[in-house]
Amino acid sequence: MKAIVFDMDGVIIDSEWLVADCWRIIGEKYQIPNIEENCKKCLGLNKDATREVFLSCYGADFPYDEYKQESSDLFHQREKEELKLKLGAKEFLQWLKEQKYRIGLATSTREAVAKVQLKDLGVLHYFDKVVCGDMLKKSKPEPDIYLMACKQLEVLPEESYAVEDSYNGIRAAYNAGMKAIMVPDRVGPNEEMEEKSVVILENLMEVKKWLEKNV
């Protein structure tokens, strides 16, 4: 292994629950049915793909942009106090640096948001390259974001691991030809995830232990 590329939300930052809770509040306010289940369909997707999912679920006249803005405003009101790193994230990143691995990030979140969150949580400097959802057109599960990350890290996909929590993320890494490690967050693994992941582990500290034994 020469490199490891991480997803951000639900892997490095414990943010998926907060996004879902903000949408839950919006759903209750406007009586939007099945909002939490439909949010799960959007895990790993960029903003354009997420918008398409909502419109396909609720119809072309669904005021997604209005509700999304309100949900985002609520998220940003809460993030400073409620956003935390996932268990073992900083320790794992520090270990990877010490082992001289190249470290990348491949997140569907916009660059301006992702880099601020990573900086505020004290981990931005660990990443050699950061690729964000607004840097390319195609969203996960397409492999483009992972292929771009590998290219920027100057490694081949088959020389690299990807750490993901979502189905779409695992699909993207697998489609890119990388070795995918699943660390589930809001959705547990199914048969497809078991087939496309080299291993499924509970948290990042377990990933560190697994790499120490198997790489």
Give a description of the structure.
With 215 residues, the chain is an alpha/beta fold. It contains ten helices and eight strands. The strands form two sheets. The chain has a six-stranded parallel β-sheet with strand order 5-4-1-6-7-8, sandwiched between helices. Strands 2-3 form a two-stranded antiparallel sheet.
Describe how the helices and strands are arranged.
Blueprint: E1 3-6, E2 13-14, H1 16-30, H2 35-41, H3 47-58, H4 64-82, E3 84-85, H5 89-98, E4 102-107, H6 111-120, E5 129-132, H7 144-153, E6 160-164, H8 167-175, E7 179-182, H9 191-196, E8 197-200, H10 204-214
Parallel strand pairs: 1-4, 1-6, 4-5, 6-7, 7-8
Antiparallel strand pairs: 2-3
Helix pairs in contact: 1-2, 1-4, 5-10
Please name the defining characteristics of this protein.
215 residues; alpha/beta; two-stranded antiparallel ribbon; 10 helices; globular
Brief digest:
The chain is an alpha/beta fold and 215 residues long. The protein is 51% helix and 14% strand. Strand 6, helix 8 (167-175) and strand 7 form a beta-alpha-beta unit.
Helix content: 40-55%
Total strand segments: 8
Helix run count? 10
Beta percentage is: 5-15%
Please give the largest β-sheet: 6 strands, parallel
Distance between the termini: 7 Å
Shape: globular
Helices and strands, in order, run as EEHHHHEHEHEHEHEHEH
Rg estimate, integer Å? 17 Å
Within the largest sheet, what's the order of strands?
Answer: 5-4-1-6-7-8
Structural class: alpha/beta
Stretches where pLDDT is under 50 for at least 5 consecutive residues are none
- The mean pLDDT is 97
